[in-house]
Amino acid sequence: VMGFGGELRFGDKVTSSQGEATTVSWLGVRGRTMAAGEFFTAEQAADAASVVVLGHSNAEELFGDPWAAVGASVSINGAAFTVTGVLSSQGGGGMMGMDADAIADGTQT
């Protein structure tokens, strides 16, 4: 897992986000579930595909509805990513002080 922080953008909407370049095992290890779409696949990770899973609050802030985020293109610090899914809201804090619902997990950063 490699962490990053920065700007998450969809069109003219911008929010700050903390994220991780991670592996397909992240979802199970962290005990998280999906609200919309799917977590990225092993094939996407192996290909270093530019895909990302958004935290619930990031998806709501940028799209209003988590399902509207799935398949959309967002930029993270200027790099383009396709949203494969949105995490269910966890509420509360995440690891290392990160907001557990304001994250972006992708195969690369």
Quaternary = single chain
Number of strands: 7
Choose one word for the global shape.
globular
Distance between the termini: 11 Å
Q: Determine the strand fraction and express it as a percent band.
A: 35-45%
**Could you spell the SSE succession in H and E letters?**
EEHEHEHHEEE
Number of helices: 4
Largest sheet: 6 strands, mixed, barrel
Briefly note the structural class of the backbone.
Answer: alpha+beta
Q: What are the segments in which pLDDT stays under 50 over at least 5 consecutive residues? A: none
The Rg value, from CA coordinates, equals 12 Å
| Whole-number mean pLDDT | 82
Give the helix proportion (percent range). 10-25%
Quick summary:
By secondary structure, this protein is an alpha+beta fold. 20% of the residues lie in helices and 39% in strands.
Q: Describe it for me?
A:
The structure is a single chain. By secondary structure, this protein is of the alpha+beta class. Helix content is 20%, strand content 39%. It contains four helices and seven strands. Strands 1-2-7-4-6-5 form a six-stranded mixed beta barrel. The N and C termini lie close together (11 Å). The relative contact order is 0.29.
Write the layout of secondary structure elements.
Elements: E1 2-10, E2 13-21, H1 26-30, E3 34-37, H2 42-46, E4 51-54, H3 56-63, H4 66-69, E5 73-76, E6 79-87, E7 103-106
Parallel strand pairs: 2-7, 4-6
Antiparallel strand pairs: 1-2, 1-5, 3-6, 4-7, 5-6
Write a concise keyword list for the protein shown above:
alpha+beta; 109 residues; 7 strands; six-stranded mixed β-barrel; 4 helices
